[in-house]
Amino acid sequence: xxxxxxxxxxxxxxxxxxxxxxxxxxxxxxxxxxxxxxxxxxxxxxxxxxxxxxxxxxxxxxxxxxxxxxxxxxxxxxxxxxxxxxxxxxxxxxxxxxxxxxxxxxxxxxxxxxxxxxxxxxxxxxxxxxxxxxxxxxxxxxxxxxxxxxxxxxxxxxxxxxxxxxxxxxxxxxxxxxxxxxxxxxxxxxxxxxxxxxxxxxxx
Length: 204
Ligand SMILES: CC(C)(COP(=O)(O)OP(=O)(O)OC[C@H]1O[C@@H](n2cnc3c(N)ncnc32)[C@H](O)[C@@H]1OP(=O)(O)O)[C@@H](O)C(=O)NCCC(=O)NCCS
Fold this sequence. Notes:
The chain is an alpha+beta fold and 204 residues long. Helices cover 34% and strands 28% of the residues. It is built from eight helices and eight strands. β5 (113-120), α6 (130-145) and β6 (150-156) form a beta-alpha-beta unit. Bound molecules: coenzyme A. Coenzyme A (COA) is lined by residues 50, 53-54, 91, 118-120, 126-132, 155, 159-162, 164-165.
């Protein structure tokens, strides 16, 4: 009996928000991430080339059990989305309540600080402007509809595409931390966009 009940419980905590956007070439849709996306999440998280960019550590593969733990855990405090480009499922991203005490300590108490994390798992789609487009969609959603005060996001210095996505969406580099070596990244970059900066940017 217990077994049957547990099988009916969702791994990923979902929601009912869908965001539409894109760029001149492609339509991009962000749909609620659900357990139906788990097979794709298993595939992307078993691809060493994808993990090279998403993980600071030299992990080559996550097991399905670990993938369930990651997305099941994060989705408790995040809105997780599946990314579609021209109707094809290509990746995932999330808007998460800031989980790092060290970062929260940088802001006044009560400030709504969130982070965006992202991965396009279908490698063919890298470098086609989709990351820039969907981060722009999430940023607008965060400030216009969620009342977020600050977006504070991360990448390591070797991830040029990620760095450019933050820059192109108006984020400023506010902190650079040395990463203990040996490690593939030399520095951890902290990117910030505040609510005031977002609305100011829209009037320019
Ligand atoms: C990071 C990621 C989401 C970016 O999305 P994307 O759609 O590939 O990125 P975009 O095409 O929107 O933008 C990439 C930018 O990097 C630039 N770029 C790529 N390689 C570059 C290089 N070697 N040197 C300089 N710029 C480079 C591109 O020219 C583009 O900038 P531009 O528009 O100013 O020309 C995606 O590549 C991805 O998921 N990668 C694997 C996982 C990952 O890295 N996740 C993020 C972890 S922090």
